[in-house]
Amino acid sequence: MWNKNFNLLLIANFFLYTAVYMLFPALHHWMVSEGGYTGFQAGGAIAIFGASLFLLGAFNNYLVDTFKRKNVCTRSLLLLALLGLLYPYAGEWGMIFLLRVLQGALFGVVLMAMGSTLVIDVTPSQYRNKASVVFTWSGVLGMLCGILLGYNAGWYLSFQQQIYLFVGLCALPVVLVSMVEVCFRAPLDLPLLSFDRFLLFRTLIPGLNMMVVPFILGVLFSSIFDTFFYICIIAGFIVFLLLDRVVRKQVNGRLLNGVGLVLMCVAVWLLGCSTEKEMLMGAGLLTGLGMGFSLLQFLRMMIRLPLHCERGTGYHTYQLLWESGVMLGVFFGKYTEDSSGQQFRAASLILLAGLLIYQAVVHGYFMKRMKNR
User: Fold this and answer.
1) Do residue 56 and residue 114 come from a single domain?
2) Are 143 and 86 part of one and the same domain?
3) What residues have CB less than 8 Å from 230, skipping those under 6 apart?
4) What letter does residue 114 receive in the DSSP assignment?
5) Which of 289, 257, 285 is nearest to 271 (CA)?
6) CA 210, CA 123: separation in Å to the nearest integer?
7) By CB neighbour count within 10 A (0-12 exposed, 13-18 middle, 19+ buried), where does 5 fall?
8) Residue 211 falls inside a structural domain
9) What's the rounded Cα separation, in Å, for the pair 45 and 37?
10) Can you tell me where the transmembrane regions are (predicted)?
11) Are both 231 and 366 inside the same structural domain?
């Protein structure tokens, strides 16, 4: 599994997520401080990114089986980066909104071409499930590092310079993906529109339940602006990665997900009580650890439910729902930002509802589907 091509894609995925997520706080701060928009208006412009991921999804299968897969990925990435250069010249909210929509649509194509296609192409069939899990962890680390970078870069760089940093971080995946060696595949006579490599409906039930995890992260991203807090989340997630192999083999999936959601629930409850340094440290560590436990089980379900020929579609369904969950959380966090901590109490209730739905419905659905395969 750990061949040169897979390693190149892992690193490319890390930098891709770092670039995309560092832009969120940078853009929000610029819109509020220089554009004069409210936090809610800025949050709405940022959050539309999540819905835009679905715009080109029906064309995915046609794109990667008609054109060279690396070209689909790298050219979409280049357009994603170039659109970022237009932000300093977009004075109107509608223009910023349009740029977010276009970037979201392109990011959806990049996710599909890289994670749901190229990773599968370069990995032996017996290791593809494991490869998808490892590839996911690189994206999660990139996401957390991107948020951390975005909140801190503004202290040292102007918005224009932050945009250049975003473009530079996008350029790295372009170079890395260009170095990947993929076997030539003759173009197929495919329909222009299809659900292949877009949405797999048999994974939607666990996928929709999984959205509570990124939703909570989105709420935190839009509500907590403390560098130390995000360092603690990264530390908690790294602790999970060190425990990953032991946990995966010895802990029942129902318990694994339950523990993860409870840890996240305790974390946001702590934040609702206080945002003192000690609380931030405990909440950050619990968030990173709980996110890892819960996501591991959800991801395991979403990559095992697809049939052999549906693997890429199942993984892309996870990617779309994850990003949409984060953006919904950002929107909710900005909508409730003046509620004196009420967003954290609401987040706790959402996590508890997600836990109950998983235990009562989703786990049984997964086990039944696996028996009937």
Assistant:
1) yes
2) yes
3) 144, 147, 148, 151, 224, 284
4) I
5) 285
6) 26
7) middle
8) yes
9) 10
10) 7-27, 39-60, 72-90, 96-120, 132-151, 163-187, 199-221, 227-243, 255-272, 284-303, 315-332, 344-366
11) yes
DSSP letter string over 156-220? TS-HHHHHHHHHHHHHHHHHHHHT------------SS-STTT--GGGHHHHHHHTHHHHHHHHH
Secondary structure class of 336 (helix, strand, coil):
coil
Q: pLDDT tens-digit profile of 114-132?
A: 998 999 999 988 888 899 9
Q: What is the domain-level CATH number for residue 138?
A: 1.20.1250.20
List Cβ neighbours of 249 (8 Å cut-off, separation of 6 or more). none
Query: What whole-number distance in Å separates Cα of residue 240 and Cα of residue 217?
Result: 16
Cα gap 235→246, rounded to integer Å: 18
Contact 76, 105 (CB under 8 A): no
Residue with tokens 């939703």: 215
* Same domain, residue pair 34 and 82: yes
Region of 196 please: left (phi>0), alpha (psi -120 to 50) or beta. Answer: beta
Domain that holds residue 32: 1-181
Tell me the DSSP string of 234-252. HHHHHHHHHHHHHHHHHS-
pLDDT score at 184: 65
Q: What is the Cα–Cα distance from 105 to 54, expressed in whole angstroms?
A: 7
Whole-prediction pTM: 0.95
To which residue do tokens 């390693």 refer?
7
Structural domains of the chain, count: 2
